[in-house]
Amino acid sequence: MSAILLVRDGREFLVHPGEELHTDLGVVEVPADPEPGETVESHLGEAFTVRTLRGPDLFDHLERTGAPMIPKDIGVVIGHTGAATADRVLDAGTGTGVLAAYLGRLGADVLTFESRAEFAEVARENMALADVDDTVEVRAGDITEELDGLGAFDLVTLDTPDAPEVVARIDEHLVPGGYVAVYSPFVENARASHEAAADAGLLDVETVETIQRRMDFDERGSRPTTKGVGHTGYLTFARQA
């Protein structure tokens, strides 16, 4: 079994079956084959609940090499493009690998490029932790140099400063009806990607800002929280004919 979480009073501990966990609540001998929902106790008699890792848990617990795309943005990408089992996906700008892991857990066959070799190695370890190392291949390299010869994909996802350059060349690397999705933290990159997609003759070109706000409920009434606006970035989508 891959890594699991031991949960106690809102605290989460990432562990592997069979290992020993040392906490301020005592030492836990993690079972070799734990079941989700099972309770295990430390040597001090403190109880922990076993939980399997899901997508949001990966966001919280994978080793980070930068700011990963957050689940709300990943959800928009999956919902907009219809990413699904058996899709062939090209991803660039692996970083921590959260997006690649989500797509791999959907059953897609993912090839992801990370320009920094040391970050690529961390991403490989993260894919093993997410239990998708059989469906996600992490390569160290520059996608602008590696693109030719890769064939066509159902979905191309980009989280790189050079995304507009890749989008300009992407038409021959998308199957009919395939999508390209670009995540841009800055609007300048989003606009350049949008214009590159339009100039390349792709269809349904659209750029959206993804904003999410929590709701506050108290005795005075209900309203969106005043703590920030929930902006994380821009998503540009386009489709092959």
Q: Can you say what the CATH homologous superfamily of the largest domain is?
A: Vaccinia Virus protein VP39
Instruction: Report low-confidence residues grouped into runs of 5 or more.
Output: none
- CATH architecture assignment name of the largest domain: 3-Layer(aba) Sandwich
CATH fold assignment of the largest domain: Rossmann fold
The number of domains is 2
Biggest beta sheet summary: 7 strands, mixed
Structural class: alpha/beta
- Alpha-carbon distance between the termini? 42 Å
In CATH's first tier, which class of the largest domain applies?
Answer: Alpha Beta
Domain tRNA (adenine(58)-N(1))-methyltransferase catalytic subunit TRM61 C-terminal: 72-216
Pfam family, one: GCD14
GO molecular function, one term: tRNA (adenine(58)-N1)-methyltransferase activity
InterPro entries: SAM-dependent_MTases_sf, TRM61_C, tRNA_MeTrfase_Gcd14
Q: Descriptors for this entry?
A:
241 residues; alpha/beta; Rossmann fold; 2 domains; four-stranded antiparallel beta sheet; 26% helix; globular
What do these coordinates show?
This protein is an alpha/beta fold and about 240 residues long. It has two domains: about 5-50, Roll (Vcp-like ATPase, Chain A, domain 2); about 55-240, 3-Layer(aba) Sandwich (Rossmann fold). It is built from seven helices and 15 strands. The protein has helices spanning about 55-60, 70-80, 100-105, 115-130, 145, 165-170, 185-200; strands at about 5-10, 10-15, 20-25, 25-30, 40, 45-50, 90, 110-115, 135-140, 155-160, 175-185, 205-210, 215-220, 220-225, 230-240. A seven-stranded mixed sheet has the order 9-8-7-10-11-15-12, with helices on both faces. The protein is globular, with a radius of gyration of 20 Å. The protein starts with a strand and ends with a strand.
